[in-house]
Amino acid sequence: MTNIQGKPHQRGATIKILTTLLVGALFAPAAQAFDASQWQAVAPAIQAAVECRAKPDTTATAWKALPRDESGAIEAIKPPVPFTVFGLPVQEVAIFIDADGELGESYTATLGANAAAVRKAAKLGTAGGRTTTMGELMLGEGVAPQLTCTVAGTYDESDYQEN
């Protein structure tokens, strides 16, 4: 009988420990919390990249502080303070940079404006894009318009031959 009586006690203690761990995990800060001051430091570089004006300095301390996933890729960022691209509000930023340079780079902002406003503010052509000295600026129309600056990589298929 003591074994049977002991099991509910052990199970109850295990549940208490698990509950404490779960509550602690819910209220613990993210592993790489990205606060307003960190954002302020990197925002000008991200703005210039999304607007296809200048590549960011990826060696800068502020850039290295961007939140990353397990593979080291930069995670999507929801700006912690108001942020604009071409004067339009940004809801989220996604960044891809191929470390080898073969696949190039892309800087995407999901915008809180309609496609017509994005075309006008970014001075896009009728096809929804334009070429800059840095790369190609294109409008993607989904649920929310996205503006992407794509920088070509070094990958070249010009010597590819099919046998």
Task: Write a short abstract of this structure.
The protein is α+β, with helices and mostly antiparallel strands and 163 residues long.
Describe this structure in words.
The protein is α+β, with helices and mostly antiparallel strands and 163 residues long. The protein folds into two domains: 1-30; 36-151, no CATH class. 32% of the residues lie in helices and 20% in strands. It has helices at 2-27, 36-50, 61-64, 115-121, and strands at residues 84-85, 88-97, 105-111, 129-131, 136-140, 146-151. The protein has a six-stranded antiparallel sheet with strand order 1-2-3-6-5-4, covered by helices on one side. A hairpin with a 5-residue loop joins strand 5 and strand 6. The longest helix has 26 residues, at 2-27. The termini are far apart.
Strand order across the largest sheet? 1-2-3-6-5-4
Can you count the helices? 4
How can the largest sheet be summarized? 6 strands, antiparallel
Tally of structural domains = 2
Helix/strand order, N-terminal first: HHHEEEHEEE
C-alpha end-to-end distance = 78 Å
Instruction: Please bin the fraction of helical residues.
Output: 25-40%
Query: Hey, roughly how much beta strand do the residues contain?
Result: 15-25%
Total number of β-strand segments?
6
Question: What integer is the average pLDDT?
Answer: 81
**Which geometry do the CA atoms define?**
globular
> Low-confidence stretches at least 5 residues in length (pLDDT < 50)?
1-9, 11-32
Radius of gyration: 23 Å
Q: What would you call the structural class?
A: alpha+beta
